[in-house]
Write a structure and sequence with these properties.
The complex is a heterotrimer of chains A (355), B (75) and C (258). Chain A has 14 helices and 15 strands. With 355 residues, chain A is of the alpha/beta class. Chain A is globular and about 70 Å long. Chain B is mostly beta strands and 75 residues long. Chain B has a two-stranded antiparallel ribbon. Chain B is elongated and about 45 Å long. In chain B, a hairpin with a 5-residue loop joins strand 2 and strand 3. Chain C has a single domain, classed as Rossmann fold (3-Layer(aba) Sandwich). Chain C is 36% helix and 19% strand. Chain C is built from ten helices and ten strands. Chain C has a seven-stranded mixed β-sheet, sandwiched between helices. Chain C has a two-stranded antiparallel sheet with strand order 6-7. In chain C, helix 8 links the parallel strand 8 and strand 9. The longest helix of chain C is centred in the last third of the chain and has 16 residues. Classes of the chains: A alpha/beta (355), B mainly beta (75), C alpha/beta (258). Chains in contact: A-C, B-C. Chains B and C meet through strand 1, helix 1, helix 2 and strand 4 of B and helix 1, strand 1, helix 2, helix 8 and helix 10 of C. Strand 4 of chain B pairs antiparallel with strand 1 of chain C, so a sheet runs across the interface.
């Protein structure tokens, strides 16, 4: 049993980063995730593990610091919230284009624009469809608890280095701010390994290493894109993660992630108390999306309700997954409002069962 | 009396014919060849080799680093 | 006395100058006469002379020198436009024993990347910044730069820079020199052999001082853009001396207190 602590989700991210042996964190304050850097600074990770923590002059600088550190083969990360993540998109595209590993945490708040500081899930498209320019993907992990905020930091770094690809933890303001019991994993030391592709100084035994996303030759640029797509195909094959709750006898299905999935868990109990056999399918990886696994449910359930704190974003991927075989609809709230279990059950009855 | 003699070797294929070396030479050694290289540039050459002192001005002003300089002291 | 022949002079033992081995054999894509090549070569020579190849990590900008990493035989990263100082900040902080430099043009450093430049220098990041100021955007075809002189013509100010309408040229090096985090700030040029020699000395200092961990070393090189300025290389260097240097005077702006 690891060390137990009562922590905020944002604090869990910070503590997990130190324990995961992160080499660097570069960020810029924004509500509702500022506790990540505050916790790190208070913990003096430069004394605990030698980890570098720096408050940048902007999210733009922060993501490019992540690029610089990642290109040295270091375990580096940043965290922000929606408007800040938007500002980082250029850098994220470059990181994906240069095939660099790093961890990005988005504690989502409502938008568009400056929006609100309350929780939302309206950055789903931005995260899973590649918010910046060019054909790239982020491995996107959706935590539904403070425990997963901690666990996914470790998992995120592992996946980032396994595939040399940026990984995003797509959280939200509720999970970032709420306190729960967390079992912390045991600390691992920072890696001393010099990665063969990293810019660490050209020694006589190797050619110089160049980290770039530029190639002006169309043929080579297309070949590179094909290589990226092959990598993404492999990730889609191997890294899908999800959880099924009370799905064995389900006649209807909710699909929800993050904070919405916690509301829906209550809604499942409520619906079942009224005799409605409904289950919850919770995608843990939003990209790669568990399309096959959701399609597999179409032989069993009569309809699916996607519950999201957005205008209906993930529902598009669910519709693609079920290929029109069963009815799929959406219910959600926006602007920082979290739906209630009662609303969710009512909408299941209205939109799916009665519809 | 000791005399300094120099000579330059131009990588003619890499020379872009900018002529900065011509102006930089204090002893008017360098001219531009009438022939062109495969890129179509007239390239630098020693039109007046006896005057070269090996001062390296031409080489250090050359943006493309195409000039190597040799120098000897003769007596 | 028998006259010495060229063959006798051109012998390995008589070699007094050749391209640094830190420069690769790749042909530079720069226009004939462009100062970028000279600036690259000076940095390469300093890296070679100080035996820093295995310790060097460079950051290339977006602009004419975007492909700089093809020309220098050191590890390099290609930054997004303007962000080189942010990359260099992280590299140096994560690997403080390395020599870290950025190489940036005027658009990269003094327009889109102004915030990164000012803040990296103000934090006193122990990095070396080489800033090539030719008063124009060369790569995209000669548009107005933050450093374009008043009344100077560019493709986006074809009648000359009207400062009332287009704003004033930015002397960012002067600003950098006022920041407590900058350690050594100097302005040089490479348009004559004498200036090349001085510029090399300045670059050497800016590289050596990085070991002192006292702050940012910043070398501006006022350079030409004969294609953008629509002049021959020799005329461009003459124009530089007559027009750029009065506005951007050469010399040290900040030197360490010894």
């Amino acid at each position: 049993m690891g060390e137990l602590r009562l922590m905020k989700g944002n604090e869990a991210v910070a503590e997990a980063a130190i324990r995961a042996g992160a080499d660097g964190y570069f960020g810029y304050p924004i509500t509702p995730q500022s506790e990540v850097m505050e916790y790190l600074m208070a913990e003096k990770p430069h004394e605990r593990t030698g980890m570098v923590v720096l408050q940048a002059e902007s999210e733009l600088a922060a993501i490019n610091m992540v690029y610089g550190g990642a290109a040295c083969g270091k375990k580096v990360m940043t965290s922000s919230s929606s408007p800040g993540i938007s500002l980082m998109q250029e850098g994220i595209s470059y990181i994906a284009g240069a095939e660099l590993p790093c961890l990005l945490v988005n504690v989502v708040r409502g938008g568009p624009g400056l929006g609100t500081i309350q929780p939302a899930q309206s950055d789903y498209f931005q995260a899973v469809k590649g918010g910046g320019h060019g054909d790239y993907r982020l491995i996107t992990l959706a935590p539904a608890s403070v425990q997963e905020m901690s666990d996914f930091v470790k998992l995120g770094f592992e996946l980032a280095f396994k595939y040399r690809n940026p990984v995003m933890i797509l959280s939200d303001g509720a999970i970032g701010q709420m306190m729960e019991k967390v079992e912390l994993f045991d600390p691992v030391p920072r890696s001393k390994e010099i990665l063969p592709w990293a810019t660490t100084g050209k020694t006589p035994d190797r050619e110089r290493n160049i980290i770039t996303s530029l190639d002006l030759d169309p043929k080579r640029q297309e070949d590179f894109n094909l290589k990226l797509q092959k990598k993404y195909g492999e990730i889609e094959e191997k890294e899908v993660r999800y959880e099924k709750i009370q799905c064995d006898d389900a006649e209807y299905l909710f699909v929800a992630y993050g904070t919405s999935s916690r509301v829906v868990q209550k809604a499942v109990q409520l619906a079942r108390s009224r005799g409605i056999k409904v289950g919850l399918f919770r995608p843990i990886t939003l990209w790669p999306f568990p399309s096959k696994e959701i399609f597999a449910m179409t032989g069993q359930v009569k309809g699916i309700l996607s519950v999201e704190m957005s205008a209906g974003q993930m529902v598009e991927d669910i519709r693609l997954a079920v290929k029109g075989k069963i009815k799929v609809d959406y219910y959600g709230r926006m602007g920082g409002i979290i739906p209630t279990p009662d609303e969710v059950v009512e909408m299941l009855e209205k939109k799916i069962i009665g519809g | 009396m000791a005399k300094v003699r120099g000579a330059i070797v131009v990588d003619t294929e890499r020379c872009k014919g900018c002529e900065l070396c011509v102006g930089a030479c204090p002893t008017d050694v360098i001219g531009m060849e009438e022939e062109v290289n495969s890129k179509g540039y007239h390239y630098a050459y020693m039109k007046n080799p006896e005057a070269c002192t090996g001062c390296v001005n031409c080489a250090i002003i050359c943006p493309d680093g195409v000039i190597s300089v040799y120098r000897v002291k003769t007596s | 006395m028998a006259e010495i022949t060229l063959d006798q002079i051109i012998q390995p033992e008589n070699l007094v100058y050749t391209k640094s081995r830190i420069m690769t054999d790749t042909v530079l894509h720069y226009c004939p006469g462009c100062g970028h090549g000279t600036a690259h070569r000076l940095l390469a020579e300093v890296i070679e002379e100080l035996d820093l190849q295995a310790d060097t990590i460079g950051v290339a900008p977006v602009g004419c020198s975007v492909l700089m990493y093809n020309y220098m035989d050191v590890d390099m990263q290609e930054a997004a436009h303007g962000r080189a100082p942010a990359l260099a900040t992280a590299i140096k902080r994560l690997m403080p024993e390395k020599f870290v430099f950025t190489y940036q043009g005027d658009g990269d450093l003094a327009a889109i990347g102004t915030a990164e430049t000012i803040h990296a220098c103000n934090r006193g990041e122990n990095i070396t910044i080489l800033f090539i100021n030719n008063g124009i955007y060369g790569m995209t075809g000669g548009q107005m730069a933050p450093t374009t002189l008043p009344d100077m013509k560019a493709s986006t100010c074809p009648y000359g820079r009207d400062v009332r309408m287009m704003g004033n040229p930015l002397k960012i090096t002067d600003i950098v020199a006022t920041l407590p985090g900058s350690y050594y700030v100097t302005r040089q040029s490479v348009h004559t052999p004498g200036n090349v020699r001085k510029a090399k000395k300045a670059i050497r200092k800016a590289v050596e001082y990085q070991k002192r961990n006292q702050g940012t070393c910043f070398v501006e090189i006022v350079s030409n853009c004969n294609s953008g300025w629509k002049m021959t290389p020799a005329d461009a260097n003459q124009w530089l001396e007559e027009n750029m240097l009065p506005f951007y005077p050469l010399g040290d702006l900040k030197v360490p207190e010894e």
